[in-house]
Write the C-alpha cells for this entry.
Amino acid sequence: MLRFVALRVGRALLTIALVVTFAFVVLRLSGDPALMIMSPDAPPEALAAFRQAWGLDEPIWLQYLKYFTAILQGELGQSFRDGRPAIQLVAERIPATLQLTLPALALKVGLGIPAGIYAALHRNSAIDRAVMTFAVAGFTVPSFVLGLLLVLVFAVQLGWLPSGGQESWRSVILPVISMGLGGAGILARFTRSAMLEVLGQPYIRTASAKGVPWHQVVRLHALPNAAIPTVTIVGFMVGTLMAGAVVVESVFSWPGVGRLMVVAVSNRDLAVVQCILLLVSATMVTSNLIVDLLYGVLDPRLRGTAPAGGGH
Amino acid sequence: MSEQVLPAVAAPPKRRVAIPPGVALAMLWLLAMVTIAVLADVIRPYGITAMDLRSRLQPPVGFGGGWLHPLGTDELGRDVFSRLIESIRMSLMIAFGATIIAAVFGTTMGFLAAHFRGWVEQAVLMLIDFQASMPFLILALSVLAFFGNSLPLFICLMGLYGWERHARISRGLAIAANAQGYAAAVRQLGAKPLRIYLKHVLPNIASTLIVAATLSFPEVVLLESGLSFLGLGVQPPMTSLGNMVGYGREYITRAPWIMLSPCVVIILTTLSVSILGDWLRDRLDPTLT
C-alpha cells in the first residue's frame, strides 16, 4: 500500500515538473522576451537591463535551474501590466471562480449520477431515452452557446435574472446552469454505461438468483462496482474547478481566474498566464492523485500492483 | 483537403445496412455543410466585409426583414448569411485540418512507441499522460499567450488536440499486430519497418482510427469556436462560427439574429458528427470509448 501511494505521488510530482518544463520551453521558444515585452525600438541599454533583471543573459541550463528553484520557492514573477506579484493577482480571483464552479460541480453530480443510475435501471424506457438525448445535447452544445441562449431568454426577453456581473446570488444562477448542465449530461452517460456493464455481470445474476431483494442487489453489488469508472469522471471534473470556467466567466463578465486568464493571454502578461497554468495543473494533478488513491480504496485489487501509465 | 476526407467520414460500411433516420439526417446535414464549405465563394451573395450602411441591423426574413438579406445584417450592414457561409468554411477547414494533424501525429507517435519500445515508449506514454491530465483549453491559451496568434499556428495548435487518443490506440493495436502472423511474415520477407507499418499495419487498424477521429472532430469544433468566441482564435477580418457568436454577443439585445444563426450551425454540426461517430463506432469498433 505504501509503495502504491509513493508511486502515485511520484507520478504527480513528475507531471508538475513537466508542466514547469513546458512553460519554460514555450517561454524560451517564443522569442526574446525582452523584445516582446518592450518594443523592438527600445534603447539597447534598457533591453540589456531587462535581460539582466530577468536573468536572460545566462546559459540556458542555468536559467532553467533558476527558474525551477524560483518556482519551488513560490516566486512566480510579477505581472508585466501592473507590477504586482502574479500569484497575488491570481489568488484574489480564486474565490469568485469557486463561487461558480462548486455549485456547478454539485449540479453535475446531483443531477448526472442519479439520472444515469435511473436510466440504467430502466433501460429503454422513455426516461432512459430522454436522459440519453439530454446527455448527447450536454456535450454537443458548447457552454458559451448555452450561456448566451439563457441570457437571451431569461435576462433579455423575460428580465428575470441579471445577464452578467457579480452582484447578488441571482447572478450565479445562469453561469452555474450553463456550466453544470453539459457536465451533468456527460456524467449521466458515463454512469449509465458503467451501471449497465455491472448489471450484466454474473455476480449480479447470482445475487438475484439466491433471492437477494433487487434494491439490495443494486445498493450492495451494483453501485459500489459502478462507482469506480464514475469516480474517474467526477475526479476529472474536480480537477477542472479552476480551469472549467474560462469561457463561461467571459460570457457573464465574472471576475474569476478564467476571465483573468483570457485578459492575461490577450495582453501577453506571461507571468500571470504561467501562474494560472501552474495553479490549474496543480489542481488537476492533485485531483488525479486523489482519484488514484480512491481507486485503491474502492478496488482492493489495484493496491498491490501499480499499472504502467497510458491506460486510464 | 476536405474532398479527400469526405469519403472516409461519410462512406457507408461495406455490407448494406439500414441507416437509421437520425444518422441519415446527420449525414445530410454534414454533406450540406461540406458542400457549403467547398462552394462558399459561389453561394455567398455578398463579400464578408461588404458593408451596406443603409440597411444596418436588419432582421431576418420572417422577423420584419427582406429577402435581400435572408438572415439579416449586422451593425455595419454586413450580410449575416454571407458571413455565416464563410464562417462555416473556416471552422470546418480548421477542424478538418486539426483532426488530420492530430491523427497523423498521434498515429506516428503510437507506431514509434510500438516499434522501439524501451525508453521511447516510456517517453511517449509520459507525454500522453501529461496531455491527458491537463485541460487542453488552458494549454492552448498558454501557447497563444507565449507565441501570439496566426492562422497556421492556430491550426497546428488545434492539431495537438486529441493526438494522445490516436497515439494510445495505435500503439496498442500496433503492438498487437506485431505479434500477429501477417506482420511477422512480411518482416521475414525483408520488408522495412516503414513499409510494414504503412502498408500492412495501418490498413488493418484504420477503421478504429477513423472512429477515433470522428469522436474528436466535434470537440475540435467546440474548442475552436470557444477560443474564437473569446477573441483568441481566428482573428478578424477572417471569421469563424465562434467569432460570429462573440461579435453577435455585443448586440444580443438589439439584434439577436447575428448570434443565433452561428449558434444553430455549431449545435447541429457537432450533434451530427457525434451521432455519426457513435453509429460508426457501434458498427466498426464497439470497444472504443
